[in-house]
Amino acid sequence: MTQPFPFSAIVGQEDMKQAMVLTAVDPGIGGVLVFGDRGTGKSTAVRALAALLPPIDVVEGCPVNAAHPKDCPDWAAPNAGKIIRRPTPVIDLPLGATEDRVVGALDIERALTRGEKAFEPGLLARANRGYLYIDEVNLLEDHLVDLLLDVAQSGENVVEREGLSIRHAARFVLVGSGNPEEGELRPQLLDRFGLSVEVTSPRDIATRVEVIKRRDAYENSTEAFLKKWRAKDKALQKAILAARAALPDLKTPNTVLHDCAALCIALGSDGLRGELTLLRAARALAALEGASAVGRAHLRAVAGSALRHRLRRDPLDEAGSGTRVDRIVAEILP
Amino acid sequence: MEPLGPWQRVELALLALAVDPVGLKGLWLRARASPQRDLVTEAVQRFAALPVVRATPMISDDALFGGLDLGATLSTGRLMRSSGVLGKPALMILAMAERCPAGLAARLAQSLDGPGFALLALDEGAEDEETLPATLRERLALFLDLDGLPWADVRPIHLDADAVAAGRAALSKLRLSDDALERLTATAAQLGIESLRAPLLAAKVALALAAASGHSAPEEDDLRHAAELVFAHRATRLPEAETEDPPPPDPNPEDAPPEPEAEQQDPQPLDRIPDEILLEAVRAALPADLLAKLAAGRAAKSAQGSGGTGAARKGNRRGRPLPSMPGKLGAGARIDLVATLRAAAPWQPMRRAQRPPQTEGFRLEIRPSDIRVKRFQETSDRVLIFAVDASGSAALARLAEAKGAVELLLAQAYARRDHVALVAFRGTGAELILPPTRSLVQTKRRLAGVPGGGGTPLAAGLLQALELARKTRAKGMTPTIALLTDGRGNIALDGRADREQAAADAQQVAAAIRALGLPALVIDTGNRPHPSLADLARSLGAPYLPLPRADSQRLSAVLSAGLGD
Questions:
Q1: Which residues of B are less than 8 Å from A186 in CB distance?
Q2: Which A positions 8-37 lie with beta carbon below 8 A of chain B?
Q3: pLDDT, tens digit, 9 for 90 and up, residues B446-474
Q4: At which of A172, A199, A226 does a domain end?
């Protein structure tokens, strides 16, 4: 397995990097949707994030990456409950994946050769406690979208088929990427992503050249390049761990709660999910910055990515919802 | 500096590909089956550094990734695995790549992002929109279009095997100077190429060409040829755009690279470099019809996106269950256990008797012929084709309302995942304004640009809708035509202003639509209902809905009702 491109070496795309780091601090934020042109480093960023995340403790041989032997599903029979350290899983969900591969199915191999009824876990099991990455998420088949929605919401995958009745934990952060020109995402799925960012190719040539140079350096002198960025990646990883630890003690003043509500009302975003995500993201950002309490600046910094995709679409509004959010944020949070 | 001849281009591309197939990721070869294409594919295979595998868009996951070989497992009683083509170094030749479904494209793209995999995509698309999925077009460095190539230009492909071998050996030692990287990047930006993969791939091509020619570093010619080979088909605007405003200042200055580690920050004003030499090379190779394509916008390209998929509507994975069938496991088929056991049951005593005597115990004897596979029937995606009258008589009030109705319906169609297409007719002909799409972004953009005025070429509008319906049906979708007009067709199919002929033509096309069994709907948007439209609706076998003074909301409600949901 080759080393992925270092996360800190990605040029620009601050919105996307911020959103991804925030979900690493608080997985409860609920995933990132990255929409934008091709060749803007969407896939690179996701794979880089995987390498950046701190490893997790899992029971050896447990198909759902459980932290304690008692959390292992009874159908899995892990060996002796030994705890090992593993990188945070980042699982790719390919577009054409069959339902069987996603949720798991009867293990036909064992059924036919040994006559046993056994469950073969799918991608959702492997993504538990980690990330599920869907490239071109807007082209995903509808039945898979429905299924993912259901599991992402309940945190549990239930399989009832061919005489099997299996349930296991499936708590994961959805990371989706796509190109809006190829089709839109259903609002129900949009809402399920905590944060949404739009990426574009950098416009100025100096930045573009820098991107190309770094990529070239990465491919031609991989070792040296990775070494050069290792310290920065490590520092970021440390910051994420520190932020995770600081999160419970972080204070949330009432004024901030009030600001959240005022912002969501002014934008007319659907449901309370937007408000909750906004608050969680702002808290994660405050923790990352080492602040002792959430402030307006934090809200302002995450409002765009937390709310942009939850607005009712106005077919006649050419500007897009991003600018609408920016305008109202400027009004409500002076 | 003279531009490359077409066949020289082919040879250079093949040379680069032979030297560094993995770095270049591969070649998108657009050509119908022809001797020219055979020459090219043969040369690619002859010089491939990797094992060659062939595949079609119908390739199953088991074949790609490997999996359980059920037939062998059943007959031997031991676990038998089949090996897949991905996961080890390979050059894949993908035939009929224009039919590559989005799922397969995504998997191949994933493999291309990893090491050791290259793709030769044989794209036989007949229409502009019928082509390789964008995910793959984006990743393959090279593109060759052989269709316009006269046979007279074709000669046997001579690749110097020694040069290729030497090039491969030298490749790892070659580096591209920062200056050259900058020039390639700036050139790509000038040509309106957004993706940053393009300059990277061009750099790889330049290196491969330099290595093959024995240069110690890429020279001017290598860069020029690389730019030509990689950028020409990706260009989205003509390089003459130099008078355009300088690139806008970076909106977020803090995004700019100057991080401490960044190399010395030379403040060179890169936007000053309209790299004439590289641009010149690319300009010579730009497809002749680029202007026309640019005028048509990025419509064809982006609307297509997912590529053409087959009409495999009787699947075995989802939808309404059908009776199970004898079949083979694999390729995502789901076994119907009960039916399989039922099929196996009658034969048990016989098979047990035939069993070698030393086998002990009770065991079900199941043979591959017993296996029953589940089948499901799913309904295919629906396409609503709006044929909208944009003539002078309708333009004033109705066009705006028709636009509104399409937008409203599209917003509703979100949840149902319907596609929408838009045909407008005015003046002397009809025009496809919007190819079938689910994208609200595109619809809005395109709708806003529909002009009004002129005569009413009703027949031409219907004909265009008919063509589109046939095309979408071939892709496995279910088209429905909704005609919005005020009914006074006055332009015949041949463009003459002849009321009689126009009416006859319209009736004729309507009959053709009916004969093809395409569902339709006629909406009379005139101030007073027009009897000739009711006649037309009868010829179409379609419901006729007069809508004097309709607004978008009502129109959309009627459309929904007329389509039965």
A1: 414-415, 417
A2: 11-14, 37
A3: 777 777 777 888 888 888 898 888 888 87
A4: A199
Residues of A acting as catalytic residues:
273
- Cβ-defined contact of B195 to A109 (cutoff 8 Å): no
CATH of the domain at B492: 3.40.50.410
Residue A309 has pLDDT above 70, yes or no: yes
Segment B371-388 mean pLDDT: 76
**What per-residue confidence (pLDDT) applies to A148?**
83
Q: Are residues B367 and B389 in the same domain?
A: no
Nearest CB among B68, B106, B178 relative to A95 is that of: B106
Asked, for residue B397, whether it belongs to a domain, the answer is: yes
Asked if B68's CB is within 8 angstroms of A108's CB, the reply is yes
Q: H-type helices in B114-250, by residue range? A: 134-139, 161-171, 178-190, 197-212, 220-231
Q: A104 near A120, Cβ under 8 Å?
A: yes
Q: In terms of DSSP H, where are the helices of B272-360?
A: 276-285, 290-295, 299-304, 337-344, 348-354
pLDDT at B410: 65
B2 pLDDT band, cuts 50/70/90, is low
Of A183, A201, A228, the CB nearest to B305: A183
Q: Which domain holds residue A122?
A: 7-53+88-199
Which range marks the domain in which residue B335 is found? 320-377
* pLDDT on residue B250: 39
DSSP secondary-structure letter at A268? T
Nearest CA-CA distance, residue B472 and chain A, Å: 16
**Cβ contact, residue pair A96, B196, below 8 Å:** no
Position B333 in a domain = yes
Helices and strands (DSSP H and E) totals, chain B: 23, 15
Q: How many CA atoms lie within 13 A of B477 on its CB side?
A: 23
Mean of all residue pLDDT scores within chain A = 81
User: Does the beta-carbon distance from A40 to B197 stay under 8 Å?
Assistant: no
Closest chain B residue by Cα to residue A210: B257
pLDDT at A317: 46
Show residues of chain A in contact with B211, CB under 8 Å: none
| pLDDT on residue B330 | 64
Rounded to whole angstroms, the maximal C-alpha distance in chain A is: 69
Q: Could you tell me if A136 lies within 8 Å of chain B, comparing CB atoms?
A: yes
Structure tokens at A233: 């990646």
Give contacts of A 241-280 with B, CB under 8 A: none
**Rounded-to-integer distance, Cα B4 and Cα B10, Å:** 9
CA distance B303 to B281: 30
Percent of chain B with pLDDT over 70: 72
Closest-approach residue (CA) in chain A for B371? A112
Cα angle for residues B285, B286, B291 (degrees, 5° grid): 160
List A residues 284-313 in contact with B (Cβ-Cβ < 8 A). 313
Looking at the structure, tell me whether residues A173 and A273 fall in a common domain: no
User: How many beta-carbon contacts under 8 Å exist across A and B?
Assistant: 191
Q: Can you give the CATH number for the domain in which A270 is found?
A: 1.10.8.80
Render pLDDT for B306-342 as a digit per residue (tens, 0 to 9).
333 333 344 445 555 666 777 767 656 777 887 788 7
Any idea what DSSP says for residue B69?
A: -
Q: Which of A13, A99, A204 is the closest to B247 by Cβ?
A: A204
Over the stretch B472-519, which tens digit does the pLDDT of each residue have? 887 777 888 888 887 777 888 777 788 888 888 888 888 888 877 788
ipTM surpassing 0.85: no
The pLDDT of B116-135, averaged and rounded, is 84
What confidence category does residue B205 fall into, taking pLDDT thresholds of 50, 70 and 90?
Answer: very high
Q: What is the DSSP string of A59-87?
A: ETT-TT--SSGGGS-TTT--STT-EEEEP
Q: Are A258 and A1 a contacting pair, CB within 8 Å?
A: no
Q: How many domains, chain A?
A: 2
